[in-house]
Amino acid sequence: MPLREDIGVPSWSPIVETQQFPLCNTIYNQKSSNPDTSWLCRFIPVARDSGTLCLCGGGRDTHVSIATRDCFGAAIVTQWNSFEHSSEYPTDAFGELEFIGAGKRHSNFLRLSCNTPAHMVYRVMTNYWKMPSPNLVISVVGGGGNEKVKSWVRDVLRQGLVRAAQSTGAWILTGGLREGIGRCVGEAVRDHSAAASSLSLKKVIAVGVAPWGLVAERQKLINPQGSFPARYHVQNTSRDACCLDSNYQAFLLVDDGSVGRRGGEMDFRVDLEKYISDQRTGIHGSGSIEIPVLCMLISGEANMLKRMDLSLKKGIPWLVLNGSGPAADLICELLDALSPVCQSPTSTSPEDKGNQTPCTELHDRVRERVKRYFPAKAELEKLVNSALSIYQNKDLITVFNSEQESPEDFDTVLLKALVRASKRVSSEASEYTDELKLAVTWNRVDIAKSELFNGDIQWKYEDLEDSMMDALINDKPQFVRLFNENGLNILDFLTYQRLEELYRSLSDSIVAYKLLQGSLLERQKLATPHKEAGPHSSPDQETTLKSPQSPISRNSFVSQLLQDIMGDVCRPFYYKHFKLVEGISTRTAMKQVNKFLLGECTYKKDECQYPWASLFIWAVLQNRSEMAVYFWEMAGESVLGALAACKILRELSKLESETETKLSMKELAQKFENLAHDVFSECYQGNESWACTLLIKQSPMWGEATCLQMATAADARYFFSHDGVQSLLSQIWWGAMQRSTDVWKLVLAFLIPPLIYTKLIIHFGKLGHHVIRTKEDKDNPSCYQHSVQKTASLMEHVPFKGEEALSSSPRKPYIVMRWREFWFAPVTSFLGNVLMYFVFLGLFAYILLLDFKPPPNGPCTLELILYFWVFTLVCEEIRQVGCIAWTIFWHFRLKLYLQDMWNKCDITAISLFALGLVCRNFKWSYEFGRAVMAVDYMVFTLRLIHIFAIHKQLGPKIIIVEKMIKDVFFFLFFLAVWIMAYGVANQALLYAYDPRPLWIFRRVFYRPYLHIYGQIPINEMDGGKCTSNITLIEDGAEPCTSTYANWLVVLLLVIYLLVTNILLVNLLIAMFSHTFSKVQENSDTYWKFQRYNLILEYHSRPCLAPPFIIISHIHLLIKRHIRKIPSTKIKHFVLEIRDREASRLNTWEAIQKENILTVQNKREREKDSERLKRTSLEFCTSALSWIMEGLSESNNFKMTRSMPTLR
Q1: Is the Cα dihedral 855, 856, 857, 862 positive or negative?
Q2: Which residue numbers delimit the TRPM SLOG domain (predicted)?
Q3: For residue 421, which of 78, 131, 638, 715 sits 20 to 30 Å off, Cα-Cα?
Q4: β-bridge partners, 211
Q5: How many beta carbons lie within 10 A of that of residue 1097, not counting itself?
Q6: Residue-level pLDDT at 640
């Protein structure tokens, strides 16, 4: 930035801490011996002085020799001019400022020339000093020097100005010096900082724009390399200098070459205000309006008229405090007392409007008032002309009258002042629309409600569009709610083009933006060169997601992102608009999108099919809590929507690197899970049958997903713990049989099938109705019968695909129906698989121990049966892979299949069995095959753990064991470190030479591990039968131990046993205890969640267990793929409801959601009101007791009647 010094200055661009500032020159003196002056000024002596004082304010000794020469010849120079008599050089004062003894954070400072371009300074402030872009700039002028500030002005600054700045996110520009108004503003900011939160501190930015020549101790700031920090001491100063105020965050020290003079920063400050007013508000300048700039005049001398005139000519509005001082009072009197300006009759064109001359009468009246306020000023005509020019721009001036308006109303006055200015500049926009835009920019929904949405104004849809986009992009959910309640139709508002604009506004720092940018790069790799250069793109265009000219559809990236996050839970979003077919690969989809986007892309003008859900996803991806909750309230399908948000947030939190953001995502995910649980609880209390239907109903809005599927994907354990979810699962688990049926009855019926038709197994109806029989139903049979009838009545009105064919088919005979009800129940399938699995393990053990004959005698017949049994297990695993997800690609299905740990266990067991099978058929590998089979038997046996997860007592214990295994790995890491340290040292001390690697490995790792369990070979330490002959040792003889450091070996053994047996083992026990207590507290929740996966697995399995399952596989192959008969069993977990019945169910769910939200809001209000009431009552009681006690002790007070009683 330039500094002005009396000679020309080269450009300056130093690199400070890897941050490169723009060009910033300064005017400084090249005389290195006197750093007090950093300007180079032509010495022009004062006529009345003896030649030692320059017109710039500095002495002759502060100028360099070249500046003191007579460079003007015989010309008489009576007035010093900065631009003529000074030059610019690179700045020598910048960096950070530390106020000694203030105890505050460092302030940024920069010395610059008075003609430095404003855009460079603004870039330094926002990019390098990291100051947040302002929503408002308030420039406070006047009240300089030692002028006394009135008390009510202090109140306006403290209660009005700073509070308004905090609520709007404003910058406050003042002189920044510790005097007058600048000092009062600094104190107000200081008081605000002491009471406000850390978030509010970032919203109030105080910037001082001061003349360099007026700053005291400025020589301490000079350092050509930058000061980080410069230590600055605030002290009493002389009349010609003033210290900087420590309460400001930044200082711009404007150097015009003068010393001890005010006003040198005036032109630069006006230019800076004008430049900021041309920038846009919001994140990355995404707001709908330009940054409002308002100048505030407090008191002021005559030079303030020139300052105000310059600013008004640039269209900057002013707020004048009436009664604060001379200049402010003069302006208020001119606006109040003078008649409208007389315009010249010849000036008719708009171009000549600014040159119209006021009448003589008006000129005289202005002269009279200016002379009354500033009688001693010599240049009276210039002041009068400035006053007349100010009066001509009176539309930009607003007066604050302290007698009529309180400091609390200051923010409203600011808003109205800016509205007047915006209306004057833009005649097309109405006053209310401009005021609304400012209210949105400042996030003052209270002003909007009281002033704009109080019922007096009829808002139209067109008036709210821009403000709605501004509120959405800049995260102002209260305004979004306000607009929606006052005329904005979201169906008309949200088109696919606007949705893409919203995704374009994502912050660069969030995970969703990085993922979308990755999708963009992936798509561009697939695009051919001629396709990439679309009709709207250019070769040099930067390929970023935020590029407005890019022909890339962001909705396609969002679809891919949601598909990656959701997995197989739901079908892709937004595929319909790109004419994509479900089930195609991501690569093929991208190529089709590239081809589609080369066309006209008319879909962008279409209305979004599910606007609230689309906005909800957009808010969730950005982790915007309040806005996401509001969109969730409006979107419908509340339970499924909350679970979807839970899934998205938990997946994004895994990718988030920032700890604070990761924690907030997890908290918001848990909040949505709680909302889903509460809403479903309300639904379940209202109607159990409808609530169960809600769990399995497919949602077109969420890609045909169901609540149960989404809850599983989101790991929503708390939601699964709800009694309603468990009741549905229990009913599906038992099928058409009573849940109270004993297990021995099922086993007996399984072994003796004719018992199915006896009263041993009690059946009560079809499973498709999802009847939930509670404890009250058991106690009251009539109530239970009514519940069955009511459920059947509901299901008659809720058809699904395939039901019409089933209802039209003839009713099955009783024998067939009972047979199907028993064998198709998941509990029967589970029981059969358990029994047959035990038989399988017994057969495997028998063969492995007694009948595993080597070739050519083996394998025997039983072993061949075992091979066939394992083959049926392989067929079942293949069937499970084929039934996963909606996609047709096997690699994607296999990926989802391998996500389950027990599926990996099955693959491992089958792979080991295949390896052992191959090896056992050859003599040379028979023993290896036997060993592999033995290990494989262990893997098959461990598979029983998963089977017993359905048990209510064993299930949580299995979870505890799984988590304890993770603790063991951490323990083994520490143990391995100590084993390695002790083993190597022990081997080196005991054996001087042993070339046998296997024995070294055993002594280093195996024996130290056995020491933990008490196996300590004392004889090796003391020496035994051995040899020291190196030749014998190399031939395999046992080497003798070294007894030299025997005492050290014993010491190391003691330390090793102390650490491992006491410290590490107890650490492991403590870890186990912590894991057990943590899981045990939520054991019921863990078990209920795990139970769903097991029920789902056996519900989808064929009724026959291996090896007879091969019959079911052949039957399913013929039925599904040849005869094309759809499955009816899947409807127990997935129910398709459309049209009127779907709308009816969604409306009922929305009513239940409104009920729960009303109850929660009422509870919160009662909590606050009760607390306030209790506190007020206690205070009033205490105060009245104090008053009564004082009156009773007074001799002047006599009771005229008795104390009143409570009626």
Answers
A1: positive
A2: 108-332
A3: 131
A4: 254
A5: 18
A6: 93
Residue of higher predicted confidence among 454 and 286: 454
User: Residues 189, 245: contact at Cβ < 8 Å?
Assistant: no
8 Å CB contact between 253 and 210:
yes
Mean pLDDT of 1080-1087: 79
Q: What is the number of alpha carbons within 13 Å of residue 1097 lying toward its C-beta?
A: 18
1123's CB contacts (< 8 A; 6+ apart) are: none
Percent composition of the chain: helix, strand, coil (DSSP 3-state, to 5): 60, 10, 35
pLDDT for 441 equals 77
Q: What is the arithmetic mean of pLDDT over 875-899?
A: 74
User: What does the block give as tokens for 673?
Assistant: 């899970």
What's the mean pLDDT in 63-91?
A: 62
Q: How far is it, in rounded angstroms, from Cα 677 to Cα 660?
A: 26
Judged by average pLDDT, the poorest of 305-314, 438-447, 851-860, 1020-1029 is 1020-1029
Which parts of 501-629 are beta strand (E)? Answer: none
| Contact (Cβ atoms closer than 8 angstroms) between residue 167 and residue 448 | no
Contact 496, 577 (CB under 8 A): yes
972 CA to centre of own chain: 37
User: Quick one: which of 1098, 872, 1070 has its CA closest to 974?
Assistant: 1070
Most confident of the following: 394-403, 692-701, 911-920, 1181-1190: 911-920
Length of the chain: 1207
Cis bond upstream, residue 35 (ω within 30): no
**Which residue carries 């000219």 as its tokens?**
549
Report how far residue 770's alpha carbon sits from residue 109's, in angstroms, rounded to the nearest whole number.
73
Tell me the C-alpha to C-alpha distance, in Å, between residue 316 and each of 140, 292, 310, 1157.
Answer: 13, 9, 9, 47
Rounded to 10 degrees, what is the CA torsion of 384, 390, 391, 396?
A: -170
Count of other CB atoms within 10 angstroms of residue 742 = 9
pLDDT in tens, 1036-1063: 777 777 777 778 888 888 899 899 888 9
DSSP bridge partners of 153: none
pLDDT of 675 over the 60 cut: yes
Q: Which residue has the tokens 């007013």?
A: 277
Structure tokens at 973: 């890491």
Per-residue pLDDT averaged across 768-794, rounded?
A: 40
Categorize the per-residue pLDDT at 627 as very low, low, confident or very high, splitting at 50, 70 and 90: very high
The span from the CA of 788 to the CA of 776, in Å, is 13
User: Helical H runs in 656-774?
Assistant: 659-686, 688-696, 707-713, 717-720, 723-734, 743-751
Contacts of residue 248, defined as CB under 8 A and 6 or more positions apart, other chains included, come to 107, 174, 176, 186, 189, 206, 207, 208
Beta bridge partners of 90: 25
Rounded-to-integer distance, Cα 532 and Cα 526, Å: 9
Tokens at residue 92, please? Answer: 């020598």
Phi then psi dihedrals of residue 825, to 5 deg: -75, 135
DSSP letter (8 states) at residue 66: G
Rg (CA), the chain: 42
| Torsion, CA 1182, CA 1188, CA 1191, CA 1192, rounded to 10 | -130
Kindly report the CA angle at 603 between 599 and 606, in degrees rounded to 5?
Answer: 155
Distance between CA 664 and CA 662 in Å, rounded?
6
Q: Residue 952 is encoded by which pair of tokens?
A: 């209510």
The set of residues, in sequence order, having a beta carbon less than 8 Å from that of 1184 and lying 6+ positions away, is: none
Two tokens at 193?
């900082």
Q: What's the rounded Cα separation, in Å, for the pair 791 and 731? A: 14
Assign 555 a pLDDT band (cuts: 50, 70, 90): low
pLDDT average, residue stretch 959-984: 87
Indicate the angle between helix axes 826-850 and 723-734, nearest 10 degrees: 70
Indicate left, alpha or beta for 653 from its phi (over 0: left) and psi (-120 to 50: alpha). alpha
* Dist CA 612 CA 630 (whole Å): 9
